[in-house]
Every structure is written in structure tokens, then in C-alpha cells.
Amino acid sequence: MNVLVGQSGGPTAVINSSLYGIVKNADHVLGMVNGIEGFLEGKVIEFDDVELLKTTPGAYLGSCRYMLPEDLSDPVYEKLFKRFAEFDIDCVLYIGGNDSMDTVSKLSRCDSDIKFIGIPKTIDNDLIMTDHTPGFGSAAKYVANTVREIVVDASVYDKPAVTIVEIMGRHAGWLTAASVLARKFKGDAPYLIYLPEVDFDVDDFVTKVDKLLKEKTAVVVCVSEGIHDSDGNFICGATGVDNFGHKMLSGAGKYLENLLREKLGCKARSVELNVLQRCSAQNMSLTDQTEAIEAGAFGLQAAISGKSGYMVAFDNGECKLVDVNEVCNKEKKVPENMIIDGCDISQDFIDYCLPLIKGSVDVPVDENGLNKFCYRS
Amino acid sequence: MNVLVGQSGGPTAVINSSLYGIVKNADHVLGMVNGIEGFLEGKVIEFDDVELLKTTPGAYLGSCRYMLPEDLSDPVYEKLFKRFAEFDIDCVLYIGGNDSMDTVSKLSRCDSDIKFIGIPKTIDNDLIMTDHTPGFGSAAKYVANTVREIVVDASVYDKPAVTIVEIMGRHAGWLTAASVLARKFKGDAPYLIYLPEVDFDVDDFVTKVDKLLKEKTAVVVCVSEGIHDSDGNFICGATGVDNFGHKMLSGAGKYLENLLREKLGCKARSVELNVLQRCSAQNMSLTDQTEAIEAGAFGLQAAISGKSGYMVAFDNGECKLVDVNEVCNKEKKVPENMIIDGCDISQDFIDYCLPLIKGSVDVPVDENGLNKFCYRS
């Protein structure tokens, strides 16, 4: 059995753990470099020692953002299947999110004996037909621990000030919702949490912050990068021109920081968690890492046993297979019962999320005491 | 002996470790809440269990930014010394940076029997007469580990792109220099490192990045927030007006990101490490934590033994006392021998910095597996 594995889409803390779960259990495995796009150019590698993969964030094999054409008679498919034949591939495992499952769906619908299985990963947790997705637990833990640290930092002065934390999530607010776990006690910061699932009312936001500034000193607020008004316009994305004539883009956090300063005359700052929330090794959740490895191994077994056109999913902590054609190009949003009054997160979400961040992972360090990662040389 | 301790200035990962070193070793100790400013209003607390202080970032006692007047006959001094008398204080330990040492200097020059000792802390490492300063080692480790993770994240795609990381340091580039430790091998990213010690030439920067884009895909560059042109104008701080008419401020990273996109038409993004670099518990250096505790304990002993008007300093790994009047209001910059061609960091810095980030600290976790911090209730 010749196995081919690829990674696609944005990095997570545990996408390499899924790779580990496959490579460790396969007899002969090749890796696509830079996903299906690199593979089209014949870029593949063999694997050597893979232990460090389990604690290396990012995408060891490199990634791509490459959508295959809808028309399965497009010549790119012939080219791809020639490549598969060139390397005598029996099954293909593709680790990725929504767009990557679209790739698995299309390839599995082509006429061939090759088995195609999708291994889910995304920090956004927005894949449907699975309780949750590997990558989310570690990102959620990063958000919870980091917002807790930001609250500690914001609390040192005795003067009222607002800190807006901008968290990834364009359409689904799962990751932003995880900021609720930062609270050390009932009533602790963050005091307001806004997800893209709810229309954002700027005036109501200003009123709420104004009220908080009369009661608290460190007013910490978390917002999803994808918050939008009732017409669907993103609150982020305001553009302007600086003194030098350069165009400037601002995210939701920066926009609201400037707005509050202008409207309320208060001290305000914003912190964009940025790429760190998807590439932090130190906040890896042991549960997330374990499940990512399991997902890889389970997908491998499924392919070997002849299954094709499925994605590995999680249901009550167990792996199962779901039809990849039903998964791709859909999004799972945070349900209403997890959101309170459009600006807070309910116990239902906390109960859902806590098991996913459980357990910590020791990241091996190099001779200087810094996190040791593996990389393609 | 009645000891009074306060914290002042920006938070660090280990300012509470210095507090621990004092509280643990003193017979009777009171804490000023929000530094000298809060103490003026009579805000003090007693201490209970202090074990968690060692692994709690921020400033447990709260901080202030409050400069005492130059004129020692100003009535605020009489008010302060009345407060000292009210609590029957014998010695005062003040943990802080430059401005806080100015406070220690002034108080020690007032006519009284009270002993005043300064305990150094700053992530900027810019205090003079000491080899280094508690707080720097942990912040440097955060920068090194985090830039390494950002490089991992930036390296997943096969398309050339620039990532600019903006690191704290308005006048001294020590912390930005620590990004050199992120390299996993010789020649690894970050490829360019700019400190405020060297005038920043925008055109030369664009030329260098253009060249790198022809050789590499993930062009990661680190800049200090305080980089400035040869006239002393900050590269950051460009202002403009967004579409909604709100004033916008941009830091060095955001400014250079926009500039590169415009000049080179390349993909570019910027990451501001922001407050996380000074409040991350998980990157605490054991050396830094140990020295912070030692500095507190050593300062306490000095005060008890009758010394006043000194700051605790580090010299060959040992604590000593230096005249606080000579320390305050001065800045230690990164010396020339640690900077290469204005855009890289030398082995001299690496040899200097590596011992300071040595050793890791286990941060206790709560029942949910999140970092457990102590806080004033």
C-alpha cells in the first residue's frame, strides 16, 4: 500500500500531529510538498524521524490554497492522476479544512481505484457533521490563556481603560467564544464578547463600554475579526490614507479602539492575537493533540480498508466517517444557546469547550531552552 | 522592622517574583496598592499566601506612573512621610524601572531614618550600572519562541511574502535583538533585525526586502517599535483618517507593511507582539525568575542592614548595590559590537542573552488546565 499525504489551508498547532498519526502507522508513505499544488509539479518527500512532528505547529509539508475546478473533465485532473500513477499511489490522505474537503470530494468523484480520505483540521471549528475539529482545542487554549494574561496586564493601573482583543474567525465565532474561559472567577473580564453570529451594533457597544468604564478600571472586550453590522458590512476593513499617502487597513479591534477614544475620550488600545493563535506550540491541548493523531491513524485505516470520499469526524470522543461531499463548502456556526444577549457566552459553550482544551503537552526544547521544531531541510 | 513594598511602571513576567523574594523573607511587610500614588491615599494591604506570586505575571500590587516633584520641599513629601509614620515604616522597597528609581532617589534624599532601596525590573533591559535587569530574560524568551513560531507559520506557503514583527523598545533595542535567537539554524529567519540604536533608512530597507523576496518565500523581519530616521522621526506614528473620519495611528510594523505592499507589490503582513511580550507566564525564564526573587531578598537585607539610596544590580550573576542617584533617568543602549551592518545582531549579543533565558518554569494550572494566577480580591 502506497500512501500519499498532504496538508492544505492555514496552519494549526496540531496539523502535524495528524501527519504523525498517518506516517507512524503507514507502511510506505510519501508527502506532497505544498499540497495538491506542489504535487502537481511532482514535489514529494519521504519521511525520516517523525517524533518532533507531534509538537511542531504549522504545516511540516507546506500548504497551499488551491481549489480544483468544478468540471471533473478539466485537464488538471488527468495531470493529477498521472502523477498518482507515477508514484503508484493507492490512497491519498488530505489534512485540511473546508476547501481541502472540497478537494477530497472532487478527487473521490473521479473514476479511479485510488482511495481519498479527508482529515479535518481548522482553528475555526466550523466544519459540519463533526462535534469539533482538531486544531480548535489548542487555539481555544491559546485564546483563553492569552486573554487571561492580557487581563492581568490591563489590571495593573488604577485608571479606567479599554482593551479590545481581536480574535480570528471571519464567519464563525467559536474561537472568540473561547475567551470566556479566561475568566478567573464569575464576573471577571472579559466583560463583553462579540461573535460574527450576531449583528454588531456600534452605538449599543459604545453605550455598554461607557457603562463599564464607570464600574471597572480594566475593561477588556473580545471581538471576532468578522463582526459585522446588520447589513453584513464588516466592522473591520475601514480604510484610509496616512500622512504619507499610503493606504491603511484596520481590523475590527483597531477600528473600535479609535472609535471609543473619539466617542468616549477614554484610554483605549487593541491587541490583535494575529497568527500566534494558530501557531503556538506551548498552548497545545493534550486532548487536541491526541485526537489529531487519532484522526490521522483512523483515516489511514479507512483508506486501507477501501473507503473513499469520506472525512474523519468526531462523535462522543470517537472517530467515525462522514460523507465528505456533505461536509465541504458548508460552515458550522456557534448556536444561539451558546450566546447570551449578543455579547456574552453561555455555560453551554463552556461545557462544550472545556474537555477540548484538557491536558498540556511538554514541548521539547533545544540546547538554548527554546522550543525545538522539525522542518524540511 | 516594618517593611513597605511597592511596584511601579509597566508589568513584567517576574515583577511579582521580586515581590515574593521580599514578602517571603520579611518579618512584617505591607504592600502599597498602585505604587506611591495609591500609598499617598493610604492604600495598603497585608499579604496572605504568596507562593503563586512566583508564576503570576503583571503587578500583583497594581502599579502607577507617578513622578515625584524635583523640589524636595514640595508638600507631597510631607504627606508621604506622614503616611510612612502612620504605618510605622522602617524601610521601603520599590520595584520598578527608570522612573521608579527616580522615586527611590528622591525619597532617599529626604531627611528621614527610613531606608529606601530600589529593585530593578524592566523588559527593556535599559537600566545602567547593572549587567541586565529582571524581566528582560523572560520577555526575551517570549520574543525568541514567538518569532520562531511566526516563522513556522509564515513558512507554510510557497509564495513569497513578507512578515514584519514589531517588538517593544522605544529607545533601546535589547528585546528586538533577542529575535535573533529565533533562528533554528545559521541563515534562518528572521533575515533582518532593526533596532532604534541605528537610524532607519526606508529606501535601503525596501531594497533589502526586494532582494530577499527573490531568494526566499517567508521573508520575516523584526523591527523595534522605536525605529526612527536620521532626523529622529519615528517610522511609526504615521497618522491618517479612515473612511469614517476617525483618526488612525499606525506603528512601525503596520507602516512598513503598507509601504512594502505599495512599493514592491508584494504580499505583506505585520504582527505586533503588543502587551503579550511583557505578560506571558509560559515563557518565563527560570534564570530570570530566580534572579528576580534574589533581587528582592537582597534588597530587603540591604535595607534591614541600614543601607538607603541604592538599587540592586547584577554583576557576574551576583547581586550588588549601586547608587540609585546615578542610575535613574539614564538609558543603556545596545552597544555597537552587538549590531551588524545596522540590520543584524552579532554573536556578542547571543552570548550575552542566552544565559538569561535559561531554564523553564512550570506554571501551575487551575481545574480547567489554564494558567492559575493570584490576584488581589
Describe this structure in words.
Two copies of one chain form a homodimer. Chain A is α/β, with parallel strands linked by helices and 377 residues long. The mean pLDDT of chain A is 94. In chain A, 32% of the residues lie in helices and 20% in strands. At the A-B interface, helix 5, strand 9, strand 10, helix 8 and strand 11 of A face helix 5, strand 9, strand 10, helix 8 and strand 11 of B. Strand 9 of chain A pairs antiparallel with strand 9 of chain B, so a sheet runs across the interface.
Keywords:
4-stranded parallel sheet, 15 strands, 377 residues, 7-stranded mixed sheet, alpha/beta, homodimer, 32% helix
Span between N and C termini of chain A?
Answer: 27 Å
Q: Which geometry of chain A do the CA atoms define?
A: elongated
Please trace the helix and strand order of chain A, writing H or E for each element: EHEHEHEHEHEHEHEEEHEHHEEHEEH
Profile the largest sheet of chain A.
7 strands, mixed
The oligomeric state of the chains shown is homodimer
Largest interface: A-B, 74 and 74 residues
Helicity range of the residues of chain A? 25-40%
Gyration radius of chain A (Cα, Å) is: 22 Å
Number of helices of chain A: 12
Give the overall pLDDT of chain A as a whole number: 94
Number of strands of chain A: 15
* Beta-strand share of residues of chain A: 15-25%
Structural category of chain A: alpha/beta
Q: Provide the spatial order of strands within the biggest beta sheet of chain A.
A: 3-2-1-4-5-12-13
